[in-house]
Specification:
The chain has 176 residues and is α/β, with parallel strands linked by helices. Helix content is 34%, strand content 19%. It has a single domain, classed as MoaB/Mog-like domain (Molybdenum Cofactor Biosythetic Enzyme, Chain A). The radius of gyration is 15 Å and the shape is globular. Residues 16-160 form the MoaB/Mog domain.
Length: 176
């Protein structure tokens, strides 16, 4: 990934997928599977995939480990972004961010408005940067994961997308 605007071809990124659920297993985790399959189809590497309960400290533990791992460029979580009592992904992960990326949630809700109407307001989708790792927190539904990947992340994680994208920023994310 040398050069800020290097057009030498596709550059695969290392992605970790995290499903946040008290009830899903590897066999029933359709949303995590969608994210994994779409990342692989796009040419990226899925370096880890995990399922953890809707528990603030378990979420923070695994995401903190991935943030500290130089081999993980992107973390995409699914689940826990709603408003029920067990939904705690934003509260768990936002404190880990060095910088928030507010536009991700805004764009996701705008796109979702077209798909699910005013129900989009219930989504507390967030994104941020921590130790040079980009973190995207999507809802737990398969439709929301498709929307997040297909309409935002696929292009933004491809450094060939113009006029700009997240992938181009990697050489500069930790500059001082």
């Amino acid at each position: 990934m040398s050069g800020h605007f290097n057009d030498s071809g596709f550059v695969p990124l290392n992605i970790a997928v995290l499903t946040l659920s008290d009830s899903r297993t590897e066999e029933t985790d359709k949303s995590g599977l969608i994210l994994k399959e779409r990342a692989l189809e796009a040419g990226h590497r899925v370096v880890e995939k995990a399922i953890v309960p809707d528990d603030v400290y378990q979420m923070r533990a695994i995401v903190s480990r991935w943030i500290a791992d130089d081999d993980v460029h992107i973390i995409i979580s699914t689940g826990g972004t709603g408003i029920t009592g067990r939904d705690s992904t934003p509260e768990a992960l936002q404190p880990l961010f060095d910088k928030s990326i507010e536009g991700f949630g805004e764009l996701f809700r705008t796109i979702s408005l077209e798909e699910i109407g005013a129900s989009a307001i219930q989504s507390r989708v967030i994104s941020g940067l921590a130790n040079g790792t980009l973190i995207f927190c999507l809802p737990g539904s398969t439709g929301a994961c498709r929307t997040g990947w297909d309409k935002i992340l696929k292009e933004q994680l491809d450094h060939r997308t113009r006029p700009c994208n997240f992938a181009q920023m990697f050489p500069r994310l930790l500059e001082s």
